[in-house]
Amino acid sequence: MNPHPFQPQVHGIFDPTTCTVTYVVYESEGSPCAIIDPVLDYDPKSGRTSHPSASKVIDFVNAKRLKPAWILETHAHADHLTAAAYLKRQLGGRSAIGQHITAVQTVFKRIFNLEAGFKQDGSQFDHLFRDGEPIPLGTHQGQCIEVPGHTPACVAYQFGDAVFVGDTLFMPDLGTARCDFPGGDAKALFGSVRKILSLPAATRLFMCHDYPPVGRPVCFESTVAEQRAHNIHVKDGISEAQFVAMRTTRDASLEMPVLMLPAVQINIRAGEFPPSENNGIAYAKIPLDAL
């Protein structure tokens, strides 16, 4: 018996600048779709945003005559700005993220000393998903799976036999994501990974990023069986204590992502810019000696 009667179509769009994959998930041509983790192009030297990555999403949606129902974020990303607000204006759909985005908003409102009117209740998004909550998509429905660890607000999205894992897992030769951002927790990440890897062996897993080693092409689809057999950080037989020790040591050696400071400020606002100041310009803050 097939444990996943629904096998959605999945179209991945890889952004080589941030190594991020945006997904369009749908049943068939002309059906409702979900867009997951869209990228807003950003030049850190000039502070200018642009839309080539989002345009690829728009072109695909229009070519397949899809009807966007959701624009989903797996978490408030630190490595790219989200194009959720832009795509919502261009295509429609509801923006959504996991319910614990409120904890991330609270932390970063303090770090960036955001305006008094910035709300920490997640209301910048159209919907906040709870663990296990169904996600309507046409004649089918998916579900939200809370997977904290990389951040406290991380979620994965499951539609039939496909799970979009965010930064919880990378391809097996790369392992897992860091846990040293505010609210990160290596022990929690280990539990989240095992939660995903308890799904049926043939379940398709779609990564949010790929950083391919020299000689390997970009790849962002795996399976539960492949991860359990080969993931260098969390394959079967690696204990929680071993994982936490490895992750803690490794994280201490990593640099901050290039786009973290502007990205988080935009992403906790569901892709909207901070309010413009009296000269008509919006600004992202750079806290000095704070992180």
How does this structure look, described?
This protein is α/β, with parallel strands linked by helices and 291 residues long. Helices cover 24% and strands 23% of the residues. The chain has seven helices and 15 strands. The protein has a six-stranded mixed beta sheet, covered by helices on one side. A hairpin with a 4-residue loop joins strand 4 and strand 5. The longest helix has 12 residues. The chain is globular. The N and C termini lie far apart (51 Å).
Features:
6-stranded mixed β-sheet; 15 strands; 23% strand; globular
Write the layout of secondary structure elements.
Blueprint: E1 9-15, E2 20-26, E3 32-36, E4 39-43, E5 48-50, H1 52-63, E6 67-72, E7 81-82, H2 84-91, E8 94-98, H3 101-112, E9 127-129, E10 134-137, E11 140-146, E12 155-159, E13 162-164, H4 186-196, E14 204-206, E15 221-223, H5 224-230, H6 240-251, H7 260-267
Parallel strand pairs: 3-6, 6-8, 8-9, 13-14
Antiparallel strand pairs: 1-2, 2-3, 4-5, 4-7, 10-11, 11-12, 12-13, 14-15
Helix pairs in contact: 4-6
